[in-house]
## 1
Amino acid sequence: MPLPARTATVSRSTNETKIQISLSLDGGVLPPFEPMSHFPPSTDPAEAEAEKKGIVPIKGAAHATQFTPTQQITISTGIGFLDHMLHALAKHGGWSLAVRAKGDLYIDDHHTAEDTFLALGTAFTKALGARQSLARFGRGDAPSTKPYPGLSSISPPVPGPTEMITHGLQSFAQAADVTLHVGCTYGDNDHHRAESAFKALAVAIRAATARRVEGEVGAGDIVSTKGVL
């Protein structure tokens, strides 16, 4: 008997941002976004009909769109680097993920990045549902695919595209109600360090959210001595 799908849609609206998330923790077809006035349906009849049935590639998300037989990923936050990181998180986490956002980027990227991670965390915990049958713990390591000489010194991060990563991951952990530790062992290029961090996080999340099936120890259980999480 197949396990139930773990999917969620979330809409988040603040004075600074309007964000929508559609998430499937197990890949596959994504549920359509909830109706939201800030993202009106397409005026093209064929596109509008397709949107009612599921997620279609988001306009402006070409770099972070990848539809395969097992995953649907399409992301457009207005922050290219954030799209890139979320694409990596979804791809290596085995998720299907759609994100669209309108934020106050005329100020800076802070509110949009923060609220996107909060919305993603909310969608994650909603999709996860009751914490039964979960492996619960996961660890991931992901080296950059770029050659590295093995130097141990790391220069401190400077303001730029990677500046919001720490706060963004804190926001995700807060909204997702998870304990999260992310570190970089070595590296001196912030872009590659960030890529490795998100890939490793994806591997860890995929392991932690794996479900124990009937017949395995822990199937149907809350994996805690307290009996609750």
## 2
Amino acid sequence: METFSDKIRQASSEPIPVDVRSNVRLMSPAVYIYTSGTTGLPKAAVLTHLRLWNLSFVQSTFGVSSTDVFYLNLPLYHTSGLMAFTGTIERGSTLALRSKFSASHFWDDCRKYNVTVIHYIGETMRYLCSTQKRPSDRNHKVRMAIGNGVRADVWREFLNRFGHISVKELYGSTEGNIGLSNYTGKVGAVGRVNFFHKWLLPYAIIKYDIEKEEPLRNSEGFCVEAATGEAGLLISQISQKAPFIGYARDPKQTEKKRLHDVFVKGDQYFNTGDLLWIDEENFIYFQDRIGDTFRWKGENVATNEVSDILTTMPSIQEANVYGVKVPGQEGRAGMAALRLKEGEPFDGTGTFRHVSRYLPAYARPRFIRIQNCLTVTGTFKHRKVKLVEEGFKPDEISDRLYILDDKDKCYVPLTQRMYDSVVSGMIKL
């Protein structure tokens, strides 16, 4: 590793000579941004100057102006933080930049710097809602929140507690060639089907086989669009208007994200790796990532939905849901890593009663793991890969483990003897 700050101090303060950038075009690489690595190793996505400009114009589409004060506490090495940063440059607005997110200092900072626009991602809003309530919760000038990944229940709680703030939910990925925005403010949606947008940048939600981990194709070998209300894989056509550059020096991973002969011979689409669905009013909702959704008892289980249900329990602070392999069983059984609220014990009977009330039998976590903290990425996305690999082995995991007991209607401690009985098939899941 080489230092960078000392080289910056030695650099000339004179404008960069024109000849240095004479060969730079809109499609030239501008930056490398590493993906989160939630379902594998991070990869360096190539962002062109054109893409960087497009990201920088997002704030203008929502009405952010030069008079706004934008509050940012996300890492600048990731797309969301960089987009917010370059957007304030494009707008000419003021940026209040914090080195690290702090839920306890968030609103104090907003009041101190007269913040009018905030940026969020993943669990940011839920962290804010979990702080102790104060009389000053609505005493601020924030009028707008821009970001992605807020759940519908947290969205409502955030507005009820902190006042009327216009939430602009986005959908997109670092390397992707498609972006959606909830311009109507519909709680829970990431966008709405817009004829002009779809005509200009064609995309579709297609049927997807969770078990085989591939799109469903008809007798002619072409993909089939998902029905209204049916979750499917979001794909976006690769074209000159919507190019897919891929990953730096990694053609194999780049090709993995391309789908060929989707609707006609020779066409190409970008595989977002995300499952979304459209309601009868044409609003679009995010359901889960392909790697996160799993199949159990012949049914598809969306980890986000199970997490949402678990975190509505008063004692549960965070929930990270995933599927684990069980010897001799088809598919993967649901497991949840939980972080409890400070001072709260795990209530096995209450948790059983809660999941039984709100979740069908196949979606109820068969195993629960209690952790002091859940591992997240720099942008607050839960990491699952290691948890999936570790499974539910009591002799290898120091955290408390529980198993769902249908007979006693409770989650009971998972012992080594019980684990052996599950593996041998004596205990039926």
